[in-house]
Amino acid sequence: MRSEIIKSKIFERRALLLGAGQLLLTSSLVGRLYYLEIIKSEEFKTLSDSNRIKIMPVLPFRGRIFDRNGKAMAENTSYYRAMFDHYGNKEALAIMEKLYGLLEFSEEKRGFMRKKFSENHSREPFLVEEYLTWNQVSKLEVNKPDLPGIYIETGQVRNYPYSLVSAHLIGYLGPVKDETGNSVLLSIPDFKVGKNGVEKTAESLLRGKPGIKKVEVNVHGLPVRELSIEESQSGNDLQLTIDADLQEFAVKRMAGLGGVSKEGGGAVCIDIETGDVLAMASTPGFDTNQFIRGIPTDIWEELRDNPDVPMINKTIASQYPPGSTFKTGVALAALEAGTITESTTFFCPGYYMLGSRRFDCWKKEGHGSLSVRDALCHSCDVFFYNTAQRLGVDKIAEMSFKLGYGTVTGIELPGEKPGLIPSKEWKRRTYNKDWMAGETINTGIGQGYVLTTPLQLALACARIASGGKKVIPRLIKTDSEYLKNVQLENIDDERLVNRLKELQKPFDDIPGISQRNLNVVKEGMEMVVNQLGGTAYMSRINIPEFAMAGKTGTAQVRSQAHGADSSKEPDKKYRNHGLFIAYAPIQAPRYAVGVVIEHGSHGATTAAPVGRDILLKIQEMRADVKPGSDSENKEGT
Known about the structure:
Elements (H helix, E strand, L loop, with lengths): L1 H38 L1 H12 E6 L6 E2 L5 E13 L7 H11 L4 H12 L7 E4 L4 H9 L7 E10 L3 H8 L2 E3 L16 E3 L2 H5 L1 H4 L4 E7 L5 E8 L7 E2 L4 H11 L10 E7 L5 E7 L5 H4 L4 H9 L21 H11 L8 E3 L2 E4 L2 E4 L7 E3 L1 H7 L2 H11 L1 H11 L20 H8 L5 H8 L9 H12 L28 H9 L12 H16 L18 E7 L21 E8 L6 E7 L5 H21 L6 H4 L4
Parallel strand pairs: 2-10
Antiparallel strand pairs: 1-8, 2-3, 3-4, 3-5, 6-7, 8-9, 11-12, 11-19, 13-16, 14-15, 17-18, 18-19
Helix pairs in contact: 9-21, 12-14, 12-15, 12-20, 13-20, 14-17
């Protein structure tokens, strides 16, 4: 009996322990389930959805670019491309091999694609082929059941209607490389950004913002259906100050002029009242549309090796000695400093002696006695040798900076060079040497160290013609309807924002320049073109209401020793540059041009006719009148 009681107690204890254990395990299980189902439910729901739902970016449409009259200079067109959502697909390589056959890839391209695909470690869809033909699209659609993960997507491609005449101005798009920023777009394979021109400087305005598309995927990560989409925000359209017709005219007018091989130079036309750049022609050019689909190797090598460097925007990135066009600024500086007056004369025997060193005038027999107006008219070097020597290089530099030389204008383009205006301090800082008197002589005629760009030439002319206003050139039309509602503070480009704000301000007067002295220089420039014997007389405009004033220039590429045979024509690459600055109409200046014809020999014979025709063209366009007859302007050609 006692043993039965003991057994019963042992059983009860064991049952109690087992029950307690079961209760403990059950409690733990219930607690864990509560933790997982209640406390962590949102977190696991998110994880579950991430396995079921794939979030994909929706690329925005890039903003278009128009000229001042609404003509498209950069627009978007649609095309089809084949994409492969390969992540988690064990048959990816086999599917790609099928695709090569359907798209009829060459063996060379198959090898390239195999290498590209093997090096791709992104989970994002892989771009197989762009710009599909209808035949290729049809083949992919018919074979879609055998190509899991392959789908056709509508993309957008940039098109440039004025590509051949605006390559340097508009630029082109290319794949992301060194670009930085917070935009998720920069991490998307094959997303393209601006690589040059306005496409690059206005990237933050043109790019837009991506949207989000949620797609349900199966266990293999392949898309099943689209769940929702948040549309992207298109980039801002831009209107430029450029007149596409004038731009095209300027480029074609410069065709075949200058250059080492075929042609080369730059021309800029500015609206003096607004600072609008109406034309910015750089030759030779190239077709930016070829860069969109991948430029062929042979064409790229031709562009790269061309001695006339077509990839350089010569209006802002090539620097030239200004030659005699610089004399306008030297004359103004001397008049303001009181070094000369409008009645001061110097005698030109054909040379100037500085100690034992001889500086020749371009006219060997000399010009005789000349005042400043006459010296500008005939471009007498000796007059400006005397003037520069009395004035000093620092006074020349001071006026040059006021006119816009020696510093970047801030134009909304990449790669602008500042040119160079020398001074005594500059030479000490650069070469650790003292300034020499002979260097002042050379500076006085726009040679020596002095360097300018075609844009700076046009700008200096515009500031003189404006009556001393600090004209600031602009390329983006800041008062356009396209920018009316844009919040500049939200643009992720502080430099561009500051520039656009600056362009909205009225022009200031340039300090230290009197109207009287400006008029003396302007009268001299008028004589250059319209007085018999003026260096640009043969390029005058014979329509009184369109008449222009200007200044020719010829800049040495390689100095020639005194007494050398100048009758022998040098190699083309050593020929002088031809330059010309001008404004029109004389009675109420509205347009200014700066022209450089590389290796054009003489400004009067190559650059001046180009400048004249550009000024005549823009005035005819704006005045809505028919061009003058051939006979009217025949004498001026």
